[in-house]
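Question (not urgent): is this output format expected?
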Amino acid sequence: MRNITLSLTTLALTATLAATAQADNHSNTTRDNGMITLKSHHSVSKTADRLEAVLNAKGMTVFTRIDHAAGAKKVNKQLRPTQLVIFGNPKVGTPLMQCSQTTAIDLPQKALIWQDKAGDVWYGYNKPSYLKQRHNIKSCNAALGKIENALAKFANAATKAE
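Got this back:
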């Protein structure tokens, strides 16, 4: 009986690992690493452009946009299109840092936009509950809720079909 249980456990673990590896490990759900990913209906550049437009319209500060593929090209390496948009607003971020100053390592907010092996474009960002857990935030639920709603709206605006 014990061998059967171990075999079933091994089979379940193998199936879980295979499912996790499938499609470059992307889905429209929160992954175990605290990152939310959404599939975009646009190219990496257009998704990042759309994100910047919505952030500017909402009064957010776009600190920088990093083109990792361009950086790789400078050192004669190849990387599929990959861009990082760093943005924030002190009115929103400061209360979170007041609850746990170590949250500053994860702020300002970041959105990662990349193309996978299959050519699909993905948009990813940190889930606020991940920050709460990582930085042992005991309060700040109102600020975290505002951030969660805003990040979801920004992601949807950047990735949705026109």
